[in-house]
Amino acid sequence: EPEVTQTPSHQVTQMGQEVILRCVPISNHLYFYWYRQILGQKVEFLVSFYNNEISEKSEIFDDQFSVERPDGSNFTLKIRSTKLEDSAMYFCASSGGRGPEAFFGQGTRLTVV
Amino acid sequence: DQQVKQNSPSLSVQEGRISILNCDYTNSMFDYFLWYKKYPAEGPTFLISISSIKDKNEDGRFTVFLNKSAKHLSLHIVPSQPGDSAVYFCAAVETSGSRLTFGEGTQLTVNP
User: Fold this and answer.
1) CA-to-CA distance for A101 and B33, rounded, in angstroms?
2) Does residue A11 contact residue A107 with C-beta atoms inside 8 Å?
3) Using CA atoms, how far apart are residues A112 and B8, in angstroms rounded to an integer?
4) Is the Cβ pair B99, A48 closer than 8 Å?
């Protein structure tokens, strides 16, 4: 069964450093998303991406965040200068576009120290 | 942001009985609703969804009911199995949108 894969599973970084989280969405999907879940809180939407551009972003997704689809398979989330409060599970998701059902990867746990 | 609310943080049921998970929403623009299941250290797994033009959708042991006038939906699992033990999230999508707005989640424990 096709699945969304994310790497790495766990990333530890120093405050102020840049991190890139990587995702391979399901191959025939057209919509790509990043969500995050801070420990003990809700899963929160960050950004959606369609047709090589951002289609929607939340207030969390400020200038420190960027997304890219550098080739036909990868979808990345970059955080330019990490803060302690960026520590969270980051989930990549994709959907085929026929309905809003999104399929999630296993997540990357980002720890900023 | 309390647009989607799951008021019960936890629910415990006996194997073979029915599990009923509840979700309320406030945003009238939501017109599609989804349930996800999440095990520790994994991402949410899609379970079942319902459009606002329906009031019920069934898939095997899982049934979702939607009461639009009450802005309430519920997920019924019958019969419940120990492998169903997980956190269940409801999520909602606005008309012509794709952003999922999640509830807080309910930890379901099914006891053998």
Assistant:
1) 9
2) no
3) 31
4) yes
pLDDT in tens, B46-73: 999 999 999 999 999 999 999 999 999 9
Rounded (5°) CA angle A27-A30-A35? 95
Cα separations in angstroms, A60 against A36, A64, B39? 10, 10, 25
Nearest-Cα distance to chain B for A99, in Å, is: 9
How long a stretch of residues is chain B? 112
Average pLDDT per consecutive 10 residues, chain A (113 residues; last block may be shorter): 92 97 94 95 95 93 94 93 97 88 96 98
At position B102, the amino acid (one-letter code) is F
| CA nearest to B23, candidates B85, B95, B100, B78 | B100
Residue entry with tokens 């606005």: B94
Element (H, E) at B19: strand B19-25
Which positions in chain A touch B99 (Cβ < 8 Å)?
Answer: 45, 48, 56, 58
Cβ partners under 8 Å of residue A85, min gap 6: A38, A112
- pLDDT tens figures, B78-91: 999 999 999 999 99
Taking an 8 Å cut-off on Cβ atoms, the answer to whether B43 and A91 are in contact is yes
A1 Cβ partners below 8 Å, 6+ apart?
none
